[in-house]
Amino acid sequence: MQWTNKNGYDWCELVDIDTLVGRLLQPDLRPGKWAGEDIRKAMGGFTKENRRHDDQRRGVTLVHNDLVGSAGLSPSISVSFQPILPGEKLAFHRHNYVAIYYWVEGEGYTCNDDDGIDREETRIYWKAGDVSISPAWVNHAHVCTSKEPALQLAIHDFPDLCYRRAMLNEDPDGHENLRHMVKGVVPSFNNLDTVEDLEKRSQKISIKTRS
Amino acid sequence: MQWTNKNGYDWCELVDIDTLVGRLLQPDLRPGKWAGEDIRKAMGGFTKENRRHDDQRRGVTLVHNDLVGSAGLSPSISVSFQPILPGEKLAFHRHNYVAIYYWVEGEGYTCNDDDGIDREETRIYWKAGDVSISPAWVNHAHVCTSKEPALQLAIHDFPDLCYRRAMLNEDPDGHENLRHMVKGVVPSFNNLDTVEDLEKRSQKISIKTRS
Amino acid sequence: MQWTNKNGYDWCELVDIDTLVGRLLQPDLRPGKWAGEDIRKAMGGFTKENRRHDDQRRGVTLVHNDLVGSAGLSPSISVSFQPILPGEKLAFHRHNYVAIYYWVEGEGYTCNDDDGIDREETRIYWKAGDVSISPAWVNHAHVCTSKEPALQLAIHDFPDLCYRRAMLNEDPDGHENLRHMVKGVVPSFNNLDTVEDLEKRSQKISIKTRS
Amino acid sequence: MQWTNKNGYDWCELVDIDTLVGRLLQPDLRPGKWAGEDIRKAMGGFTKENRRHDDQRRGVTLVHNDLVGSAGLSPSISVSFQPILPGEKLAFHRHNYVAIYYWVEGEGYTCNDDDGIDREETRIYWKAGDVSISPAWVNHAHVCTSKEPALQLAIHDFPDLCYRRAMLNEDPDGHENLRHMVKGVVPSFNNLDTVEDLEKRSQKISIKTRS
């Protein structure tokens, strides 16, 4: 946080209650839909060639644009779909929010291991139809063991943590990668990404469902 | 909620993870200050004459303008100072967020009574230096019994409830006054206020602390 | 809220900071799994005969028992699976938390209409693979139009609202059914259920995943 | 997080919706009070001799014992009173929750400086009656410059972050002191405290307000 007290506290204001209400109230979110066909289409662009760092940035996420002050499908929930390719082993990482996975397709396991070691006793084996959880601040990594890609529906509760400036990541695993997830500090979830990486990437996706 | 599906779901978008991050991350709030002298000055304009509905809209609230998506001193906390005049009895009301009061000056009591009746056994008597709590969805009303005005420092946790579109009020007490606190539905905390009332009010206050 | 000040405030305590820490810290949730086979098995008991009020109480929900102070799959997220039978039309209801639906099987629509009227323009049509949202405090009802049952994976953010005592329901639609969701006030989500209904029900389900 | 998958997932359960409701609903918090006289009395035991590490563990905090699943004055707010002695300079530290201070007595400043350096331009000067904020994850330290002790009323939003297992501290400043605030990992806010320190301390305080 770079700041100075030199010009007073312009960002701090005393207002009457009615003025507060005017700023406090938000438009209600409209009901909405993200069609399965569009989700598949959006994921289509992610081939083995255009991923970065062999990591999990191949996903497609559903955002509701009536929301300001953070981003997600709702004010408190993020929903993403992410394919994991056969034989792929994503890197260990952790964050201070819970991850819930519904496994739509494929088979594999998630290792939840604070030492970042893939041990038999810290694996959770899953296949299509299962639900699993990786708790807050526990190091975890996904592995796809089926011949077909695994498809993960990931549910996270980070949008309101981000609104509250309370979100922290260590991605990939390693103390040197700890970051407070606020604007200006980080360009992506993964600390190995540079701003240049992000500008050069071929993954820019935006699809809206028509009917 | 007025809405239609006629033109699809323009507000619902599928994006790649990096695009999500760009929208997700918020600027960290800057450290800040609201000077006591400015708080006193801001409250100065509230005389017995310019209040509305004999109610509690005489307060001054502290907002941090680095915050978007709701309003408050912080993403999850609102802090307000409110004088209650000698002999004054504010109307019963309730809301689904907790109210914590630190009593800076004066003496009196808060009645926490779901029937909206001022009963001896549902009163909490307070004086300067005390802290009291009115829980979520419990009907409550403040009474000042001292010769000098009471000064209440009120701490509420509604900013993030409002961000989540989860805030409901019944103000004043009465089922007909139940309202979902979202934009377009309500002009103020109090259901008796009309938009005209708010436009005519003489309470518009804005002060910033210089050093 | 029934309470009295007659014996002081035994439930309010002043403690040193270290004592606070001892009560504040919670055990971290363990990683976990709910197998798809077990989810199917759990839903097996819900036939057309044993449901109550023609309503949506046929679901199976995933809970993590390391959590106290509320209930859900995680501290802030609830995940449930619910079949909707062919031709079935669930009753309109609303609540101050967002509902996100991933449609696993079947076809149908959700009407999001504050007047509780099934109108063409307030319907969201969905089929297997789609994701839809019913925002906070918007009246909504599900209809299954396919020959096979629809299977809904419902994601709600009520566990931490309940922990905060901020959860309100109007179920079924109607002002007389408004309820603050706290212990002692309500026996179920649906206001038409009585305690006797709940005791007589044949739906008691508990399954744990072995490996 | 130490855990094993060897005996299945006993802590993960599939239940019917009514069973969920039975675990979900919490008793509403009762209205309550913490008397100013009791707060003063509770703080009385903290002399210059019995503090640990020259740090800020001299405070008294207000807890509501109707709450389970975390601890605080309310489900989302903690309120503490803490004296800072003349000339005292507390150590820099940071945490992923916002701190709001109402300064009841005395004079001094808070340095909000990520480098942990007491610089003129990152100080916020305060005196009795002022309100200040130290944002999430910003390193901060308090200094009392008046001849009399300063009295700080501190408002934090960590109780629901702790309920969500999302709370992290770096106290005192230093990467080696980063800790996920969950049971078993940490005995106190301050990483320098050992379990033995805590057992030997003379600060154990518990006072309840009678009327």
- N-to-C order of helices and strands of chain A: EHEHEEEEEEEEEHEEHE
The overall strand count of chain A is: 14
Shape of chain A: globular
Structural Rg of chain A = 19 Å
CATH class membership of chain A = Mainly Beta
In whole angstroms, how far apart are the ends of chain A? 44 Å
Which architecture of chain A would the CATH scheme give at its second level? Answer: Sandwich
Arithmetic mean of pLDDT of chain A: 91
The percent range for helix content of chain A is: 10-25%
**What would you call the structural class of chain A?**
alpha+beta
Q: What fraction of residues of chain A sit in β-strands? A: 25-35%
**What would you give as the CATH superfamily of chain A?**
Jelly Rolls
Report the oligomer: homotetramer
Characterize the biggest β-sheet of chain A: 5 strands, antiparallel
Helix run count of chain A: 4
Pfam families (chains A, B, C, D): Cupin_2
InterPro entries (chains A, B, C, D): Cupin_2, GDO-like, RmlC-like_jellyroll, RmlC_Cupin_sf
Keywords (chains A, B, C, D): Dioxygenase, Oxidoreductase
Protein name (chains A, B, C, D): 5-nitrosalicylic acid 1,2-dioxygenase
